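REVIEWER CHECKLIST
Item 1: Sequence provided? yes
Item 2: Single chain? yes
Item 3: Sequence as submitted:
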Amino acid sequence: MRFVKESIIYPLPGEQDIAEIEASFRIQFPSAYKEFLKHYNGCTVIDSTPLTIINNRCQIERFLGIIKNFSEHSYGVVCMILGAAKLP
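Item 4: Structure as written out by the authors:
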């Protein structure tokens, strides 16, 4: 999978940032996802493979990232939605 380099969300999160998110949601991210966050955080996908989930075809458009101070970030305050588009 390739990503749009200009769409990577900076600053990249560190171990402590990821641990705080895990603790707040009471979850544990897989190691591979933690590494993804530390290198790319969130970003737009250039070419993704369509997926079939419960008889619906979907395609990933964007991965959401961690924004510590979202009120000060250029993205501002946004509604979080699943970053996938339904395909016909």
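Item 5: Key structural point noted by reviewer: Helices lie at 15-25, 31-39.
Item 6: Recommendation: ____
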